[in-house]
Write a structure and sequence with these properties.
With 606 residues, the protein is α/β, with parallel strands linked by helices. It has helices at 2-51, 74-82, 119-126, 160-165, 172-176, 182-254, 259-409, 416-444, 456-466, 468-474, 490-506, 572-582; strands at residues 53-54, 64-69, 92-97, 108-112, 132-136, 145-150, 153-158, 169-170, 452-455, 477-480, 485-488, 515-525, 528-540, 587-591, 597-604.
Length: 606
């Protein structure tokens, strides 16, 4: 019974070994199957790319040729697909190219980064030859179409500029599913590398555990084999004894006729039987001892099994600790990577700053030259202002004096047409004088840089007193919210508010009571949050400004209405624009016809 148990144990041991070997072969077969599927996917991707790209000279060739650079096994999958598929209606020929110098006469070239071919050298080699380059696992935006391994499949990106430069055309679907961001490509590439590293680590751990189990099973197998050999040896001895007894019994049959010999044989046989019985008893004792020894071995195996289970528990606990250590290690690697990235960005910022400083130096030189030119222009403008204030006004005053003299002394000598002409000339000379004065005033604006703290509330209060007659005559309402104290030229800011308030009162229908509302809020510069500015708004309920005229109203001497409708020189808003810009701000408006106008302008806080 014990021998049968041992035989059963041996059979179970061999069955266990066969199961382990079968599992290993099945895992290898599964890996081989996955690799085969991915190779087929790679070949299908290449065929699909070729089908979605257009060649300008494709119709001149009888076959579509695809070249594979290096000893890549992808050529076998491409040849298999080429027997079933065509590209642009043409049969496909697959060619292996061993060296870059051999690249010629193909429509499409495939290269894998694992063979270390220089992508720049390849691009120079195929430039102008109308060859589409498809690469795998190269850096982002280096070739024309670049594939990257992602798990059991692929992603791709296209360099549209390089493709169009080589006179290819591409379908919208090819661009739709391509990766378009270098950051996204980089994250995808890093994720793939981490995934592969994690899978390799898990595989190594599983292989180490499997080898440890195999060593334990081999030890148990060797122990059991030794015990079986001892048992087989004892069985051989028993078989030998049985053969001897059978031989003696056979001899006794042949000597039955001789009584004495038979008696002697019986005695001898009895003696032998006694010996055999003694030997059998001895053998039984040996078997019993062997059984006890086997029992002890089984108990030892049970203890070994318990010990192995305890060791597996310890290993599991150690695995948990190792995983914790791995997490800490990964965290440290992430911190180191972050530190490297920060250092890289700081270094790149330094390089950019250095580059920008060079560009700034060049721009400063250009600004310096421009400032010299502007200074000369300003001198010319000052000279023009001097001429306008003296040389132009002197003949204008002479004309005005002679017109007054003619109107006073020779008034009766002119008929009605002559008198009307004298009035037109006098009005024109007065208008000319106003224009010259306005032009002089415009040229003087922005020269004063002696800025002081100006309380805008005080400025508006004084303006309301200056415009008291006009306000009472029109019944206008001036609404002022709490305004800030700004840095600027008080006289120019006063002129700015005066022009905007006067326009709000003047450009209003006769049957409408003018209403002007002045407000101000503090804002931050979106490009530089450390810079703050005041944004003023002057809103009226006047006639509004048509969209087509809003771009030119800040130009000098621009009028939208005749002088019979609204008086003025048309230079007021030009004054406003120059005052705001000389203070470092901007001015704009929002208006709809017959709905009023809101003028906005900014003044820096510092």
């Amino acid at each position: 019974m014990n021998i049968l148990n041992i035989k059963k144990l041996k059979v179970l041991l061999w069955v266990y070994c066969i199961i382990i070997a079968f599992s290993s072969l099945q895992a290898n077969a599964q890996n081989a199957e996955n690799e085969g599927v991915k190779r087929l996917q790679r070949a299908i991707f290449i065929f699909n790319f070729a089908q979605q790209v257009g060649w300008e000279n494709l119709n001149t060739k009888k076959k579509f040729r695809i070249g594979v650079l290096g000893p890549d096994r992808t050529i076998l999958d491409l040849r298999a697909i080429a027997q079933r598929r065509k590209i642009h209606g043409q049969s496909v020929e697959i060619t292996r190219l061993q060296h870059v110098k051999d690249v010629d006469g193909v429509h499409l070239l495939y290269v894998n980064n694992k063979y270390s071919y220089s992508i720049e050298y390849l691009l120079n080699k195929i430039s102008g030859k109308n060859i589409l380059l498809i690469s795998e696992d190269y850096n982002f935006n280096t070739s024309m179409i670049n594939m990257v391994n992602v798990g059991d499949s692929f992603e791709y990106e296209i360099n549209e500029e390089r493709i169009l430069k080589e006179r290819f055309t591409i379908t919208p679907s090819l661009k739709k599913y391509a990766i378009t961001s270098s950051e996204k490509w980089k994250r995808l590439y890093q994720f793939t590398e981490k995934t592969l590293s994690k899978v390799q680590e898990d595989k190594n751990k599983q292989e180490a555990k499997l080898k440890d189990k195999e060593r334990q099973i081999q030890f148990q197998k060797d122990t059991i084999t030794g015990q079986l050999e001892k048992i087989y040896s004892k069985e051989d001895e028993i078989d030998e004894r049985n053969k001897r007894i059978k031989k003696l019994y056979t001899q006794n049959e042949f000597q039955k006729k001789k009584y004495e010999e038979k008696l002697a044989l019986e005695r001898e046989l009895e003696s032998n039987i006694q010996k055999q019985i003694s030997y059998i008893k001895y053998q039984q004792q040996q078997i019993k001892d062997s059984n006890e020894e086997i029992k002890d071995q089984q108990e030892f195996l049970e203890r070994q099994k318990d010990k192995i289970e305890r060791q597996e528990t310890v290993l599991s606990q150690q695995d948990v600790k190792i995983k914790s250590q791995e997490k800490i290690t990964l965290l440290l690697i992430a911190l180191a990577t972050l530190a490297f990235g920060v250092s890289f960005f700081i270094y790149r910022g330094y390089q950019n700053k250095k580059k920008y400083n060079k560009e700034l130096a060049l721009k400063n030189k250009a600004f310096y030259k421009q400032s010299i030119i502007l200074e000369a222009k300003n001198k010319e403008l000052e000279q023009f202002a001097y001429i306008a204030s003296h040389d132009l006004q002197e003949p204008l005053n002479t004309i005005s004096s002679f017109i007054d003299l003619l109107a006073e002394d020779y008034k009766e000598s002119f008929d009605d047409v002559g008198k009307e002409s004298l009035n037109f000339i006098k009005d024109a000379s007065v208008r000319m004088k106003k224009l010259i004065d306005a032009l002089l005033e415009y040229s003087r604006l922005g020269r004063s840089k002696d800025y002081t703290s100006v309380d805008c509330n005080t400025v508006i209060f004084e303006l309301k007193n200056d415009l008291k007659n006009r306000i009472e005559r029109t019944g206008a309402k001036i609404n002022v919210k709490d305004l800030p104290v700004v840095k600027g030229a008080e006289i120019e800011l006063r002129l700015l508010f005066q022009n905007l308030i006067s326009n709000g009162i003047k450009f209003c229908h006769a049957d409408v009571t003018p209403e002007v509302t002045i407000n101000c809020i503090k804002k931050e510069d979106p490009e530089n949050i450390s810079n703050e500015f005041w944004e003023f708004s002057v809103k009226d309920n006047g006639i509004g400004i048509p969209k087509k005229h809003q771009e030119r109203i800040f130009a000098i001497f621009q009028r939208l209405h005749s002088r019979d409708q609204y008086e003025g020189t048309g230079i007021g808003l030009a004054h406003c624009k120059k005052i705001v810009e000389s203070h470092g701000g901007t001015i704009w408006l929002s208006s709809n016809e017959e709905e009023g106008t809101t003028f906005y302008f900014t003044i820096p806080c510092s």
